[in-house]
Amino acid sequence: MYEDFYGLTGKPFQLSPDPAFYFGSKGHTSAYAYLKYGVYQGEGFLVITGEVGAGKTTLVRALLEELDVKTIVAAQIVSTQLEADDLLRSVAKAFGIRVAQDDKASLLAAIEAFLLMLFQQNKRALLIIDEAQNLNAGSIEELRMLSNFQCGDQALLQSFLVGQPELRSLLRSPAMEQFRQRVIASYHLGPLDEAETRGYIEHRLHRVAWKGDPEFNPAAVHAIFVASGGIPRRINAICNRLMLAGFLAGQHALTEAEVNAVAAEITGELGPQAVATPFPPRNRSHTG
Fold first, then answer.
1. CA dist., res. 274 & res. 288, Å (int)
2. Dihedral of alpha carbons 215, 221, 224, 230, sign
3. Which DSSP state fits 213?
4. Which of 92, 99, 206, 208 supports an S-S bond with 10, CB 3.0-4.6 Å?
5. Taking the model in full, what pTM does it have?
6. Are strands 157-163 and 45-50 parallel, antiparallel or unpaired?
7. How far apart are CA 231 and CA 227, in angstroms?
8. Residues near 286 by beta carbon (within 8 Å), at least 6 away in sequence
9. Bridge partner list, 286
């Protein structure tokens, strides 16, 4: 709607994840490096966490586009509180595995046969579970058991768990000790800082042929940073609404006052969680 008014070739701030708009902040670059490290290792579990809207799914999609499909067969599951047996069915479906019977023994046998077939073709399997904070302890244990499938000393399945910070709390529980021993690395993706927020906004605008119209003055960017808490999805929501308001008012310079008005409008519609809450810790990582 506002694209023509500002001479843009597309929507710069759509809310759905799109790897074409991937922005390499310090945190995102580090998280992406961890994902690539995990792929290189080819075994065990890698855990990526971050707040809602931090850009985790965009990272995963960017990785999937880069993988060599001749050597890695990747499948993705979005977890919706799956029980252990349901998780096995989801794994089979995600990899396109046909199972004659629906019992657990048949599921495990079919998954193992598929993984062995890939190994014989000099390929390996990568399973990515998004929204992994919704998994329960039984489902995570089932994933750990799947990681036991081997041929000689070669692991047949590697898994990445991607989720909200609650996932880290779940994995710290005493019952998860055996699982933690299989985690090769983990990373927490924090928010953008203020300089990165400006870089992020301009990066997305440049992707749609922005030539400085509309103008985001420093005070406006600061207000966006404060209102969004540096969370990319919140930045998108504010900027999208801000540019719509600018179009409707015929404005080519967007100011702090407009940002504050838009942030108040979003809060009134969606509640305080739609804009900034106290920052989570900055990026933290460890390998194990």
1. 35
2. positive
3. -
4. 208
5. 0.86
6. parallel
7. 9
8. 185, 186
9. 186
Q: 150: burial class by Cβ within 10 Å (0-12, 13-18, 19+)? A: middle
Amino acid at 269: E
Q: What are phi and psi of 161, to 5 degrees?
A: -105, 125
Q: Could you please report the per-residue DSSP string of 8-75?
A: -SS-TT-SS--GGG----HHHHHHHHHHHHHHHH-SSEEEEEE-TTSSHHHHHHHHHHHS-TTTEEEE
User: Which residue(s) pair with 124 in the sheet?
Assistant: 72
- Per residue of the chain (288 residues), give pLDDT as tens: 899 999 999 999 998 889 899 999 999 999 999 999 999 999 999 999 999 999 999 999 999 999 999 999 999 998 777 888 889 999 999 999 988 887 899 999 999 999 999 999 999 999 999 999 999 888 999 999 999 999 988 999 999 999 999 999 999 999 899 999 999 999 999 999 999 999 999 999 999 999 999 999 999 999 999 999 999 999 999 999 999 999 999 999 999 999 999 999 988 776 555 566 433 333 444 444
What is residue 101's three-state secondary structure?
Answer: coil
Question: Is the preceding peptide bond at 272 cis, omega within 30 degrees of 0?
Answer: no
**How many angstroms separate the first and last alpha carbons of the chain?**
49
CA distance 24 to 46: 20
DSSP-assigned letters across all residues of 230-250: T-HHHHHHHHHHHHHHHHHHT
What b/e string do you get for 40-65 counting C-beta neighbours within 10 Å, with b at 16 or more?
eebbbbbbbbbbebbbbbbbbbbbbe
Written as one string, the DSSP assignment of 132-171 is: GGG--HHHHHHHHHHTT-EETTEESEEEEEEE-THHHHHH
DSSP 252: S
Helix (H, G, I), strand (E, B) or coil at 187: strand
How many whole angstroms separate alpha carbon 179 and alpha carbon 174?
Answer: 10
> Three-class SS of residue 168?
helix
